[in-house]
Amino acid sequence: MGVNGLYGLSGSGLDIESMVKAGMLSKQNQYDKMYKKEVKNEWLKQGFNEIYTSLNTFKYTTLSDYKMQSNMSAMNAESSNTSAVKVTANGAAVAMTHNVEVGDLSSNAYLLTKDGGIKHNGEPTTLSYGGVNYSYSNSTPIKDESGTITGWKLRKSSDDPHSAGVSAEAAAVKENYGITLDKVVFFSIEEAKESDKEDIRTRLSGLGDEFDENAKYYKIVDQEGGDYKYARSDWGAIVFTVNDSGDKLTSDELKKQTIKYTYEDIANGKTLNDLAADIKNLNTNVQASYDATNGAFSIYNSESGTEAKIAVTAKSMEAVTLFTNLNLGVSANGEIKDLAAPFELSKTNTTSGTEGSIKIDGRTYTDVKDNRITVSGVTYTLLNKTESGKPVTVSVSQDTDKIIENVKKFVEDYNKILDDLTKKYNTKPSGDYEPLSKTQEASMTQEQIDKWTEKAKEGLFYHNDILRGLIFDMRDAIMTPVQSVHSEYNSASAIGITSTNNQGHLQLDEDKLKKALAADPDCVYELFASDQDTYTDAKKKDRYEYMAKDDYNNRGIANRLYFNAITDGIKKVEDYAGVLPDSNDQSSLGLLITQLKDKMTNFKKLMDDYQTQLYKRYDALETMIASLNSQYNTLFGGQQ
What is the spatial distance between Cα 82 and Cα 78, in angstroms, rounded to a whole number? Predict the structure, then answer.
């Protein structure tokens, strides 16, 4: 079917569709060439994006390890008494022996429920179950592994406390008496009834408060059982602040570090687990936990030292009662002592940690926090006080095995990325394979398309200028001697790192490396990281520029790779291909792909116009043939 209708009605016998298709063939070939070029550049961009990711990982994750003194000048430390002090050494430590005496250990501010456990106020005298009264004080809850009360053993008296008692379901006892030992408070609370309204109004009036007809109120039974009061559901029952410094809180800090439980919260069963979780969620160093199995509550500062505190300020009498009932004491050095002062309304109760002390080579350090201190590259972890006159000997020596392992790993990491780049650079294109056009794909199976595409992608980076420059720079960074190393071990080959072939693949002679370390223990660190400590006073941006532009020949291997070879390679890849497959990134390849897509779009419009013109021509031809046939039939149609 043509533009103007059906063809062949003239009887001409012309296959117009085939003629149009043949006429479009040269145009389609031109379009397919552009399409294949665009696809090939998409592949190239994607391939460079993968190289970019690989280079970034090598620079920021891998190379950073080989600039660290702790890895390339690794030291080992041993303690003669590991029960008193444990030691580790970093690369800055010196091989020598230290004499150590451990004094006091540092401690955290730590509050813990004392012997006698948490106090439970408002408990009933008797528990009535099945028509029989049992003694509350002689009955015991039954808990599962998580500490949840699942039942009760009810006993009438203490005459036979070891008797089995009567088993009762926890739900039934709780329903009747509201007993759960993990509740935040244990005073009796129940929703006020309609009949209590006038009583509420009268009592609130006496306190200077107005009764709100639309609010919910609760009836609170006095903890001593003598009186009761009413409280609106949204009033603060338990209100207190917690901080970890003991300093006066700003208004903003006060808002963030105040915990408030309303009477509605209490009625809904706020638990000690909730209390612990809410203290943790204040985002201070103060933490809390509730041990339901042993009935103990603890509050502690995760840091140690006199500056690390627990400061609790009760803002309501119910909060005073809560913290008093928790029966907290100061836990330190295996003992629990009474608080310096009891909890009082609006007064801050503060508990501090302590610093530890240690004498190292005759000098005493009294500000040890978290029982850990680092002196001259050696980190001391205090565990126990040493006996007078019995110092601990700490021996520091070079960890040759670790250094060799790190150099070996560097060679492996370097070879992995260089070999991949070299393979890409040297792989030639596979003959006549090129991207498939849509027409070609239409006649193939998916498996055939995948195999063809795999072959067509080979050789994308063959003799690519960016890769050639990157490979050369990486090899040069390794093989150029480091002039700032003032010993014979100023090159990779001098410590046993050599190239196995002209591709730059490295190998390590471990025996040669061991000999170099024995002769010059600092040679590996200096060879890899020279010049990196001379810029520390500069601003971050200036430091980077300094490292990139300063004397290349004085720079260590890892720093040359980090600041020069890999950084330059990343910049060139980013400029040429961007960092993501998206072509709208203003990279050279991105712009080229965008231009090709625009060119293809415009050419497609031209193809459509050209096809329309072809159909119009054949329409005219059909019309002319039909007219000629009509004239012929008119002239000769009646003759025999």
Answer: 8
Look at 95-99, 220-224, 294-298, 375-379 and tell me which has the smallest mean pLDDT.
Answer: 220-224
What CA–CA distance (Å, rounded) separates 296 from 17?
Answer: 91
* Beta pairing partners, 152: 141, 168
Identify the CA nearest to 352 among candidates 290, 300, 314: 300
Name the residue among 100, 89, 27, 52 with its Cα closest to residue 467.
52
Tokens representing 361 are 């080579």
Structure tokens at 36: 């294949």
Instruction: Name the DSSP class of 508.
Output: E
Contact 91, 75 (CB under 8 A): yes
Q: If you average pLDDT over every residue of the chain, what do you get?
A: 85
> Which three-class secondary structure state does DSSP give residue 480?
coil
Measured CA to CA, the distance from residue 364 to residue 393 in angstroms comes to 16
Closest Cα to residue 435, out of 420, 452, 447, 422? 452
Whether the full predicted model's pTM is greater than 0.85, yes or no, is: no
The DSSP bridge partners found for residue 260 are 239
pLDDT score, position 344? 94
SS3 299: strand
Mean pLDDT of 406-411: 95
Residues 371, 376, 377, 379: what is their CA dihedral angle, to the nearest 10 degrees? Answer: -10
State both tokens at 206. 């006496």
